[in-house]
Specification:
Chain lengths: 874, 248
C-alpha cells in the first residue's frame, strides 16, 4: 500500500469527527443543489407530461382577419423558433389493393403539415420507411400503425385519400350559431398517395387510435380544395423567450393556444419562484464548498507537524501533496456521492409530501430525475471541493520542516502564497461556480439585460461576503475581539482566552462569521421579499376584493332581477357576473356595465360606460396589462367562436372588477356581456353566482356585509337558504396565507443552509480544539475547570454568532431591494421593498443560537482532552 | 583512505533575525567513518541539533560542506537532499514524531512506504524489529497509547527498518526513564555492532556517551578537537572530566 493511501486512509478513519463533518459539508451543499434541481425537474415533468397534448406543438396559431400569415413570417417573430402551416381534418383512406377480408375504406385523422418543417416539432416518429420528402414528385403519406396493421398497407403501397362528405358547419353570428352549408351536393375526389413511412405509436401516431395519416401541406390543401379549411399554424416556442414577451409579440396579429405542458412553470410568478429556489441551491453549493475549503485549510494547520515529520523522514513534497490530494479526493468524492443520493431522496420525499417548486400542496403523479444534470452538478461539487485541497498542497510547498518538527509556526513563509490562493478560491466561489451553475441550471425563462444586472447584484453581495472572509478576515476578527474584550471583566478566564483565540485565528473567525452571515442574509432577504409580496397582495386586495362578497349556489336567477334586488339594500353599490367566461387566449369575463358603474373606471363618466356597452372594448386587469404590455387604446385580438379573430380596444386597466375566486386568476379581461353573447355565443342572463360590491364610504365589517346579503337573499329566495357567501377579507387572508405556505420551501432550503453554516463553525472550532490540545491540557493541568475551558469556547461561538447575525441582517436588508427588483424583472410583479419586521430580531437570535449549538461538540471534545498526555509530549 | 560516511568541512550556520546575525555553527569540521558510533555533546544552544539538521540535509549551511555517503549535500537541491535522506538516513527525534493516526506497526513501516517499497512484504521484519526492541505487543496500538520509552523504541524501529546506513539520533533518551534510556542506547549500539550502521548521537547525557566509539564536544558552535575522546571503554568519569575541561 502506498504512502498516500496509508496516511490518507488512517487520517480519514482515525479522525472520524473531522471526516464526518467534512463529508457532511460537501454532502449538504451538493444535496441542496441536487435536491432543488431534481425537485424542479420532477415538478415540471410531473405536471407538464400528463397535461401536454402529445399530438400538439407548443403553440397553435390562427392569423387575425386581414392578415395573411406565412410560416416564414412567423419564424421571424420573437419567441418563435419554428413554424409551419397546418390543418387537421377527417379523411377517408382506401387501399389500392385491400387485403382479403379487410374493409375497403377506413376513416382516418389527417394532419397536413409543411414537410420541410415537420421534423422541427418532433410530434411524430417514423418507425419504418422515411419522413415526407420535400418537393417529392408524387404525393406521399405517412400512415399510422393501426392503418398499417388493420388494412395491411405497407411501405411503397398506393392508398387513396379523400375528404369525407362535408358536415354542416356553424359559426357564431350575432349571438346565434348559424349553419354555413350552401345546400349543394358534395362529391369528394379521392387522390393517390404513396406510403413512404409508418408512424411510431407516439404523439400524432397515437391519435385516433393510430388511424392517422400525415401529408405535406400543399397536397393536403389540394385534397380539401373547394371546402373551407381553417388556416392555422403550428409553432415551437423559443425557450429563451418568456411567455409574456411571446404573448406580446403575437397579441396584435394572431389568436393562439398554448400547449398546457409548455405553460406549466413558465408563468411569471412561477418563474420567479423556481428561479428563487435555484438561486438558493447555488447559495447552498457555494456555502458547502466554502465550508470544505475552510475545513481542509484548518486541517493543514493541525497537521503541519505531520508534514514536517514526513519530510524529515525523506518524503518529497510531491509525496506529501499526494497524501493530501488522496484524502481530499476521498472526502470530496464521498461528500458528492452522498450529497447526490441525499438530494434525490430529499426531492422525492418533498414531491411526495406535496412540496414542489411551484409551491406547497401540489402533488405530482410521476417522479423523473434529471440524471445528466445531477451527475454534472455532483461532478462540479466534487471538483470544486477538490480544488479546495490544492490549498494545502500550495502551502506544503512552503512549509518550514525544521519549524514544524520543533513545533513552531511552520507556515510563516507561506502567508503570501496563502493570500494569493485565497483570492483565487474566492474568485472560484464567487464567479466561476455561479457561472458554471447558471450554465447547468439556468434562470427559468428569459435572460434579459435587466435580470442579468439583478443577478450580478446578488452575486456581488455573495462575492463581498466571500472576499471579506477569505481576504480580509482581520476586519471581522477585530469586530469579534472588540465585542469579546469587555466580556473579560465578567468572565476573566473565558473572556481572555476567547479573545486571544479569535485574534490568533482570523481566517477561522472570518469564515465562520461569514458562513452564518450568508444564511442570515438569506433569511432576512427572503422574508423581506415575502413581506414585499404581502404588501403587493394587500394593495391588490384593497382594490379588487375589499368591500366585496362572493355569492355562489343561487338557484338560477335572472341577473337583472338579482342586481336590482340587491342594490336596493343598504351599502350595496354594485353586482358583478362571474359565470360568463372564455379563454381567448386569456380569461375573458362577460360583465354587465350598468351594475358596476358606481365604482372603478366605469364610474368616471357616462361616456366610458356607453363605450363599454356599445363598442368592442375591454377592461384589463392590472397584472394582465403589465405582463402583456397593454396600454389604454391598444387592440386585443381574440378568437371568437367559429374561428374569426376579433379586435377589442382597451379602455381601462383596473382590478376593481372581474376578479373571481375560482379559478384564482389575476390576469383577465372584462367585456360587456353583450359581446360575450354576440361573439362567443355565451349567454349570461341567468346566473347562479355573482359578486357584490359594498360602498367604501360606508365602512362595514365583513360580518356586516354578510348580514346584509343574507337578509337580501333570504328575501329573494326564501326557499333556498343554502347559498355560499365568501367575504373579500377572507379572500385576501387566503392569498396572504398562500404566500407564507408556498415560501416554506425557501425556509426549508435556508434551514439546510443554516445546518451547513453550523457545520462550518463546528469544523473550525473542532480543528482549533485539536490544534490547541496541548494548550487545553496545560489549562487543565493548571487547574482550569471544565466550565472555564468550555465557557471560553462557548463565548467565542456566541460572539461569532452575534457578528455573523449582524452582518447577515445588514446584508439581508441591503439585498431585499435587489430581490424585489429581481421579482419585477422576472415576474413583472410591481413590488415595493418592505422591511421583514420581526424576522430581523428572529434571524439575529437564530444566528447566535446556531453558532452556540455548533460549539457544543467541540466543547465536548475539549473536555475529553487528556491533560497528562497533552503536557508530556511536545 | 575509505570514503567517510560523513565528511564535514568548515561548516557555518548563521541565523538572521532582529537585524542581527547569530552564528550557531562556526567552522565545524569532522569525519565519521562507516560503522562508527559518534557522540556529539555540548551545552544547550551549542548547535547540536542544528548540526544534525545540516548532516541530514534538512537544512542548508551558510558556508562549508557536508558530504553524506559521498554526496555533496551543500550543492544538492531540496529534492536531491530529500532523496539522499530517505535512502541514507534513519532519524530518531527527541520528541519521537510518530504519526498520531498510524499504529505502531504502520509508523515503523512508514520509511518503506515513503521509499515506495511494500510494507506488507516486510511485516515479518517489522515484527522481528519490534520484538528486538520489546514493543512486539504494542504493534497494533496508537502512539498516544504508548509510554515515552515505547514511543522512542518505535521511533528507533522506524529509523532502523529502512536499512539506511546512517542513524542520526537527537537526544533519543532525553524524555525517557533511566532504564528505558539504557535499553534504547543498547539497541543503538547493537545496530552499530551487528548491522554495521553508522550512528551519530547528540546528547547531554555522559552515560549515553559511554556507548560511543568517539565523543566530540561542541561548544558555542565550535568543535573542541582537543577534547575529543576515543573509546572503547569510555567511562562517565572520562566524559565528565572532558566536559569540565571544556567548561561545560
Amino acid at each position: 500500500m502506498g504512502l498516500a493511501s496509508i496516511i490518507a486512509r488512517r487520517s480519514i478513519t482515525r479522525r472520524l469527527g473531522r471526516t464526518l463533518f467534512s463529508i457532511l459539508g460537501v454532502a449538504l451543499g451538493v444535496a441542496t443543489v441536487v435536491g432543488v434541481v431534481t425537485l424542479d425537474h420532477a415538478t415540471i415533468e410531473g405536471y407538464a407530461r400528463p397535461r401536454q397534448a402529445q399530438d400538439r406543438p407548443d403553440i397553435e396559431l390562427t392569423a387575425a382577419g386581414g392578415i395573411v400569415g406565412t410560416s416564414e413570417a412567423l419564424e421571424n417573430l420573437e419567441g418563435i423558433s419554428a413554424a409551419s402551416q397546418f390543418f387537421q381534418n377527417e379523411a377517408t383512406l382506401e387501399a389500392a389493393s385491400p387485403a382479403d377480408g379487410r374493409p375497403a375504406q377506413v376513416r382516418a385523422q389527417l394532419y397536413a403539415i409543411e414537410a420541410r418543417y415537420a421534423t422541427s416539432f418532433a410530434l411524430f416518429g417514423v418507425e419504418q420507411g422515411a419522413d415526407l420528402a420535400v418537393d417529392a414528385p408524387e404525393a406521399q403519406v405517412l400512415i399510422g400503425p393501426a392503418i398499417a396493421r388493420e388494412q395491411g398497407v405497407g411501405l411503397g403501397d398506393i392508398v387513396h385519400l379523400s375528404r369525407p362528405v362535408r358536415a354542416s358547419r356553424k359559426r357564431c353570428e350575432d349571438g346565434v350559431l348559424v349553419d354555413l352549408d350552401t345546400g349543394e351536393i358534395d362529391r369528394p375526389v379521392p387522390q393517390a398517395f404513396r406510403v413512404v413511412g409508418i408512424l411510431t405509436r407516439e404523439g400524432v401516431g397515437r391519435s385516433a387510435a393510430g388511424n392517422v395519416v400525415v401529408v405535406d401541406y400543399p397536397q393536403g390543401e389540394a385534397l380539401y380544395r373547394g371546402t373551407s379549411i381553417q388556416p392555422r399554424f403550428w409553432a415551437v416556442k423559443d425557450p429563451t423567450v418568456d411567455l409574456e414577451r411571446l404573448r406580446r409579440t403575437l397579441a396584435s396579429t394572431y389568436s393562439y393556444a398554448l400547449n398546457k405542458g409548455v405553460v406549466i412553470g413558465q408563468a411569471a410568478d412561477e418563474r420567479a419562484f423556481r428561479t428563487g429556489v435555484r438561486m438558493l441551491g447555488l447559495l447552498a453549493l457555494v456555502l458547502g464548498l466554502y465550508v470544505i475549503f475552510h475545513t481542509l485549510s484548518m486541517s493543514l494547520t493541525e497537521r503541519v507537524t505531520e508534514v514536517g515529520t514526513l519530510h524529515a523522514l525523506g518524503s518529497t513534497r510531491g509525496q506529501i501533496g499526494r497524501v493530501f490530494f488522496v484524502e481530499a479526493a476521498a472526502l470530496s468524492g464521498a461528500g458528492a456521492v452522498v450529497g447526490a443520493g441525499l438530494g434525490v431522496t430529499l426531492a422525492y420525499v418533498s414531491a411526495k409530501a406535496g412540496i414542489t417548486t411551484l409551491g406547497v400542496g401540489k402533488f405530482v403523479q410521476t417522479f423523473h430525475v434529471p440524471w445528466g444534470t445531477v451527475g454534472l452538478l455532483t461532478l462540479v461539487g466534487f471538483a470544486v471541493a477538490l480544488v479546495g485541497s490544492v490549498y494545502p498542497l500550495v502551502m506544503i510547498g512552503g512549509t518550514n520542516t525544521l519549524a514544524a518538527i520543533r513545533g513552531e509556526d511552520a507556515l510563516k513563509r507561506t502567508k503570501k502564497q496563502s493570500a494569493k490562493f485565497h483570492l483565487m478560491y474566492a474568485a472560484l466561489l464567487a464567479i466561476l461556480v455561479p457561472g458554471l451553475y447558471l450554465v447547468l441550471v439556468p434562470v427559468v425563462g428569459e435572460m434579459t439585460g435587466e435580470l442579468v444586472g439583478v443577478l450580478l447584484g446578488l452575486l456581488g453581495v455573495l462575492a463581498v461576503v466571500i472576499l471579506l472572509s477569505l481576504l480580509l478576515p482581520v476586519v471581522l476578527t477585530a469586530l469579534c475581539t472588540a465585542i469579546s474584550k469587555p466580556l473579560s471583566t465578567l468572565f476573566p478566564f473565558a473572556g481572555r482566552i476567547a479573545t486571544r483565540a479569535m485574534q490568533d485565528a482570523p481566517a477561522r473567525i472570518g469564515v465562520s462569521a461569514c458562513a452564518i452571515g450568508l444564511v442570515a442574509a438569506g433569511f432576512v432577504g427572503l422574508h423581506g421579499m415575502t413581506a414585499s409580496l404581502r404588501g403587493e397582495v394587500e394593495t391588490w386586495a384593497a382594490e379588487a376584493v375589499d368591500q366585496k362578497v362572493w355569492l355562489q349556489g343561487l338557484p338560477p336567477t335572472k341577473f337583472d332581477d338579482l342586481a336590482a334586488h340587491l342594490m336596493g339594500f343598504p351599502g350595496i353599490v354594485g353586482v358583478e357576473k362571474g359565470s360568463a367566461r372564455q379563454y381567448a387566449p386569456f380569461l375573458i369575463v362577460g360583465s354587465n356595465g350598468p351594475t358596476m358603474s358606481a365604482y372603478g373606471p366605469l364610474a368616471e363618466g357616462a361616456d366610458m360606460l356607453e363605450r363599454f356597452e356599445t363598442e368592442r372594448t375591454i377592461l384589463l386587469s392590472r397584472r394582465l396589462a403589465r405582463d402583456l404590455d397593454y396600454a389604454i387604446g391598444d387592440s386585443v385580438q381574440m378568437k371568437a367562436t367559429g374561428g374569426a379573430v376579433i379586435a377589442f380596444e382597451v379602455i381601462g386597466i383596473t382590478d376593481a372588477y372581474g376578479y373571481w375566486t375560482h379559478p384564482d386568476e389575476r390576469m383577465y379581461g372584462l367585456i360587456s356581456d353583450r359581446w360575450m353573447a354576440k361573439d362567443f355565443c355565451i349567454a349570461s342572463e341567468v346566473v347562479t353566482a355573482a359578486s357584490v360590491r359594498f360602498d367604501r364610504s360606508r365602512p362595514m365589517t365583513a360580518e356586516g356585509h354578510l348580514g346584509v346579503l343574507r337578509a337580501a337573499l333570504e328575501n329573494l329566495h326564501p326557499e333556498t337558504p343554502s347559498f355560499q357567501l365568501r367575504p373579500g377579507v377572507g379572500v385576501r387572508d387566503y392569498a396572504l396565507l398562500d404566500i407564507g405556505r408556498d415560501f416554506i420551501v425557501f425556509d426549508l432550503l435556508l434551514a439546510l443552509m443554516a445546518g451547513l453554516a453550523a457545520l462550518g463553525v463546528l469544523n473550525g472550532m473542532l480543528l482549533a480544539t485539536l490544534e490547541r490540545t496541548r494548550e487545553l491540557g496545560v489549562f487543565k493541568a493548571l487547574g482550569a475547570s471544565r466550565s472555564q475551558v468550555g465557557g471560553a469556547m462557548f463565548l467565542e461561538a456566541i460572539v461569532v454568532g452575534v457578528v455573523g447575525g449582524g452582518l447577515g441582517v445588514v446584508l439581508g436588508l441591503l439585498s431585499t431591494p435587489v430581490i424585489v427588483k429581481a421579482l419585477d424583472s422576472i415576474a413583472g410583479l410591481d413590488l415595493q421593498a418592505t422591511s421583514p419586521g420581526l424576522w430581523i430580531p428572529l434571524t439575529f437570535a437564530g444566528a447566535v443560537i446556531v453558532a452556540a449549538l455548533s460549539s457544543l461538540y467541540p466543547i465536548w471534545r475539549a473536555h475529553t482532552v487528556n491533560a497528562v498526555r497533552a503536557v508530556r509530549t511536545k | 583512505m575509505t570514503e567517510a560516511m560523513l565528511d564535514v568541512q568548515d561548516l557555518y550556520k548563521i541565523h538572521g533575525g532582529s537585524g542581527e546575525d547569530h552564528p550557531v555553527l562556526r567552522g565545524v569540521t569532522f569525519r565519521v567513518e562507516p560503522g562508527e558510533f559518534v557522540c556529539i555533546m555540548g551545552p544547550s544552544g551549542s548547535g547540536k541539533t542544528t548540526l544534525l539538521h545540516l548532516l541530514s540535509g534538512l537544512d542548508e549551511p551558510s558556508a562549508g560542506q557536508v558530504h553524506l555517503g559521498g554526496v555533496d549535500l551543500t550543492h544538492a537541491g531540496e529534492r536531491r537532499r530529500t532523496v539522499v535522506r530517505r535512502d541514507q538516513v534513519g532519524y530518531v527525534f527527541q520528541f519521537f514524531h510518530l504519526m498520531p493516526n498510524l499504529t505502531v506497526e504502520e509508523n515503523i513501516g512508514l520509511p518503506l512506504a515513503i521509499a515506495g517499497r511494500s510494507v506488507k512484504s516486510q511485516s515479518g521484519r517489522i515484527t522481528e524489529l519490534a520484538k528486538t526492541l520489546g514493543i512486539e505487543e504494542r504493534l497494533g496500538a496508537l502512539p498516544h497509547e504508548l509510554s515515552g520509552g515505547e514511543m522512542q523504541r518505535a521511533s528507533i524501529a522506524r529509523a532502523l527498518i529502512g536499512g539506511q546506513p546512517l542513524l542520526l539520533c537527537d537526544e533519543p533518551t532525553g524524555n525517557l526513564s533511566q532504564a528505558a534510556g539504557r535499553e534504547v542506547m543498547e539497541e543503538l549500539r547493537r545496530a552499530c555492532d551487528d548491522e554495521g550502521r553508522t550512528v551519530v548521537l547528540v546528547t547531554h547525557s555522559p552515560r549515553d556517551a559511554t556507548f560511543a566509539d568517539r565523543v566530540l564536544l561542541l561548544v558555542d558552535g565550535e568543535m573542541r578537537a582537543e577534547e575529543e575522546l576515543r573509546g572503547p571503554g569510555l567511562t562517565e568519569d572520562d566524559i565528565h572530566a572532558a566536559l569540565n575541561r571544556a567548561s561545560i
